[in-house]
Design goal:
CATH superfamily of the largest domain: Mog1/PsbP, alpha/beta/alpha sandwich
Number of strands: 10
Shape: globular
CATH architecture of the largest domain: 3-Layer(aba) Sandwich
Number of helices: 3
Length: 178
């Protein structure tokens, strides 16, 4: 077999392999488990998309409105709707969350890693804060909280995860108001 024919055969096999891979990737019959959606249908109506392998935490120790966790018990996502704290601007709600919620729940002083104003895809202004703390005094965790003020309510989505992982912003910023 000549060198030119051999090279042509290799190119043809590589092209065929690429077509097969693309068929598998884009085939509607081969799908991964779909993400789940939490829907809040009261005022302010909103939804949040989260991974399908997370399940409802039946213990829900902090009694938040909605709490799911991965099978390894981390990451954990909390969703809550509360009254807007009097005199607390959206730009300061992350610091309020640190002092009034996280530090009290964990009985430790958390460290602010990042605190900034951002926006959801629809333009809704949000405060995003990243806090690091030691769960039960030894496990390095981080809480990333996205908060919005909507219809005179404070809506937040919080994900607690290992401090070594990047925050799951794709989940946090799936927050969508109706």
């Amino acid at each position: 077999m000549s060198r030119r024919v051999w090279q042509g055969s290799i190119v043809a096999m590589l092209l065929l392999a690429g077509v097969c891979m693309m068929t598998l990737v884009f085939s509607p019959s081969i799908t991964l488990a779909k993400d789940k959606e939490f829907v809040y249908d009261k005022v302010p109506a909103f939804s949040v998309i989260y991974p399908s392998n997370w399940s409802v935490d039946k213990e829900n120790p902090w009694k938040v409105m909605f709490r799911v966790e991965a099978s390894a018990k981390i990451p954990v996502m909390d969703i809550q709707v509360l009254e807007i704290p009097k005199g607390v601007a959206l730009a300061d709600i992350g610091k309020y969350y640190k002092k009034a919620i996280l530090d009290k729940e964990q009985k430790v002083d958390s460290e602010i890693v990042s605190d900034q104003m951002k926006a959801l895809k629809d333009g809704t202004k949000v405060n995003e804060i990243v806090l690091k703390y030691k769960y039960q005094g030894w496990l390095d965790l981080q809480a990333t909280i996205v908060s919005a003020y909507k219809d005179n309510k404070w809506v937040y989505v919080c994900i607690n995860d290992s401090s070594y992982n990047d925050p799951l912003r794709n989940v946090l910023y799936s927050l969508k108001f109706k």
